[in-house]
Amino acid sequence: MKKKILSVVLVVAVAVSLFVVPVSASKWEGYIKISTPLELSQIIGSSKYYLTRDIDLKGFGLWSPISSFSGELDGNGFAIRNLTSIEGGLFHRLSGKVRNLGLINVDITSPNDAGALAKIYNGNLVVENCYVTGKVLSTDINSVAAGLVSRIEGGYDISASITFNNCLNMATVTTTSGPGGILGSNASWYMSVSGEVVNVGDSSSITNSINAGTIIGGKTHTGGIAGYFVGGRINNCYNYGTVKITNSQTVHTPGGILGETSAATYNRGSVITSIINSATTGRTAIGYPSENTHTEQLRANVPIGDFKKQETYRGLDFNRVWYIHPQVNNGYPILRTMMKLYKIPTENNRAAPAATSFEIEISLRTGDTLNLGAALIPTGSSGTATYSSNKTSIASVTNNGRVTARAKGTAVITVTVGTSSKRVSVRVT
Fold first, then answer.
1. CA angle, 293 as apex, 208 and 159 as ends, to 5°?
2. Which residues, at least 6 apart from 38, have a Cβ–Cβ distance to it below 8 Å?
3. Is 308 helix (H, G, I), strand (E, B) or coil?
4. Which of 20, 212, 230, 242 could form a disulfide with 359 if both were Cys (CB 3.0 to 4.6 A apart)?
5. What does the DSSP assignment read for 358-426?
6. Which residues contact 373 (CB under 8 A, 6 or more apart)?
7. What pairs with residue 12 in β-bridges?
């Protein structure tokens, strides 16, 4: 019988409540794994990829953006670290899907458009559960820059759209025209055969996202979430980062959420439901709105201290996606995939009790194997994982966490780090 190999990563939080993240072979069926900088640089076409670990580009040299990609990239909760580029970002031209990915300590200086994730997008692009730290700079006076994605390419695909959900910018973004924390610009126009001007940006959206970085513009459409956003929707977005324009002669003011929308008659209007802190962003949530911009529940005078309160963030899922604690990130929210970057405290500085129920239940056939891995949260914690089985005749486990299904029945595998432990129920059929 051909053995089936699975893996389960148990994330053990030392002195914190425990949780696990199952990762099975079936989840990644059809995906190509990425474990090294070289493998990352070889992403191509419309294939599917996933990260198996953090990828550190320090020492890899200047990064040359991947020219074009239209597939799927799942960071699997890991991050790309120390990306340094003088050409753009991770990708030059991007469509498809990118999710569960961190970009840590990027250092991008580009003579034209710049975005840590992508320079431009073409076609449809979905970005979910992603974050960026570091700096993004465009030195060209007419180019756009953003924490994640700079701008749409041209005006040739009227079906092109971009969707962001649960994204966080903590990077400093600087350019003369059009900087944004999440997106630079979705605006582009297409002249139809009949001569009608069609707006490309209407189907775009930015939802449940936060800008915490500093956004610096030189003259026009400078915004915390997006620089220039035409049509589409910006919902449940929040900015407490600094947004400013350095040119005192400009007629445009920076916007806490959005720098500018189009005043042209063919703009169908943007729907904005978001919150900012006016003290850090200037006077308004939208720097230069059009008459068609529709706002709902847009608050521009929220005290900075309220951004450290969970109740401020309506629509954000703090059970599964986001995390907030007074002693983490100065009290501001982070994505749960970022928890490994921080020292996660416990209430009253006491260790959390061991689990009393199964964290996960797995079904295997006789002869199957299962790889259990333990990761310590927060990063820097010390401890060695030990593995044990209560019924080795049914399911045995080695010192490094490899489980072998030996006979029909149910066994319990216990993973222990210090005083913390988690149990995995293994049913063999």
1. 70
2. none
3. helix
4. 20
5. -SEEEEE-TT-EEEEEEEEESTT-----EEEES-TTTEEE-TT-EEEE-SSEEEEEEEEETTEEEEEEE
6. 7, 8, 9, 10, 401
7. 376
pLDDT of residue 18: 37
* Tokens 């009608």, residue located: 196
What residues contact residue 2 under an 8 Å CB cut-off, 6+ apart? Answer: none
Q: How far is CA 15 from CA 87, 204, 348, 351, 357, in A?
A: 43, 42, 11, 4, 18
113 and 141 Cβ atoms separated by less than 8 Å: no
Average pLDDT, the chain: 78
On whether the CB atoms of residues 5 and 369 are closer than 8 A, the answer is yes
DSSP string, 79-119: EEE--EESS-SSEEEEEEEEEEEEEEEEEEEESS-EESSEE
Q: DSSP letter at 33?
A: E
Burial class from Cβ neighbours inside 10 Å (0-12, 13-18, 19+) for residue 326 reads: exposed
Low-confidence ranges of the chain (pLDDT < 50): 1-5, 11-25, 155-156, 189-201, 263-270, 348-358
Write down the pLDDT at residue 367: 78
Sign of the alpha-carbon dihedral angle for 297, 221, 133, 301? negative
Asked if 361 and 22 count as a contact pair (C-beta separation under 8 A), the reply is no
Among candidates 217, 302, 300, which has minimal Cα distance to 254? Answer: 217
Q: How far apart are CA 411 and CA 143, in angstroms?
A: 60
Q: How far is CA 322 from CA 61, 131, 338, 414, 415, in A?
A: 33, 12, 9, 28, 26
Single out the residue of 228, 233, 222, 281 nearest to residue 256, CA to CA: 281
Helix and strand counts by DSSP (H, E) for the chain: 2, 40
Residue 209 contacts residue 241 (beta carbons within 8 Å): no
pTM of this structure: 0.72
Of 144, 209, 135, the residue nearest 173 (C-alpha): 135
